Amino acid sequence: MKIQNKYRYVQATRSTEHGSRMYDVNGMKLPSVTTVLAKTKDQTYLRRWKEKVGHEEAERIKNYSSKRGTAMHKFLEKHIQGNGHEDLTEIGIQAKPMAQKIIDVGLTPISEYYGTEITLYYPGLYAGSTDLICMHNDMETIGDFKQSNRPKREEWIEDYYLQVAAYAMAHDCVHGSHIRQGVIMVCTPDLYYQEFKIQDSELRRYKHEFLKRLDSYYNLVYNNNNPKAGEIDFEANKI
After folding, report:
1. Long-range pairs for 88-91: beta carbons < 8 A, 24 or more residues apart
2. Residue 111 Ramachandran class (φ > 0 left, ψ -120 to 50 alpha, else beta)
3. Domains in the chain, please, with CATH?
4. Angle at the Cα of 117 from the Cα atoms of 111 and 120, rounded to 5 degrees
5. Are 123 and 174 in contact (CB under 8 A)?
6. Nearest-10 Cα torsion for 129, 110, 141, 190
7. How confident is the model over 35-92, as pLDDT tens digits?
8. Angle subtended at Cα 190 by Cα 74 and Cα 163, rounded to the nearest 5 degrees
9. Of 16, 84, 87, 102, which residue is least crowded by CB atoms under 10 Å?
């Protein structure tokens, strides 16, 4: 896989405010895509799961999974960049074969890439960090890496689709690209690999669904102080 410097990406700083991740891009402070989705997600299933396993155990599982996911992403990032990486911690030892599974199966159709762990933003609305922007099976693609404790059903991963759709929309807006595809690559600790794709018209549908969630987010954040602050003029923004 070779890098092509086709697009010029910006640097951004990240911060956490009141439990929400924010990006400072060119002097604009924007909510992250993951924050928008988390704040507007139906939490019923999550609450039931926490009640079932207990809040302390739920927190332990969440934190461990998050650390394992971070370690897996680091292996993948360094591999894509052509650099070696070792992590001999317990989490690193578990994450390395998961990353290798994605490398062996998920990255095979990629001929070139434009960036990894890149900040993307839609001016004035939102920002985020995407795992991979590449040419996958001859289509410009947003790639997203996920770890999971168990295999996923497609009905469970709507927010994954919304996430890649948001990144595709931001990339097209700022860089004048035509992202046609989102590919989500998932691996479990027992090395079960899954791949989920959305393309063209389906990707466009998820862009519209994300905009609805974005509108809900801004309404939640601002409506108490200013009834019109959460109303986004998507037409004016040419979304």
Report:
1. 91/64, 91/67
2. alpha
3. 20-222 (3.90.320)
4. 100
5. yes
6. -60
7. 999 999 887 777 777 777 787 887 888 888 989 999 999 999 999 999 888 988 999 9
8. 50
9. 84
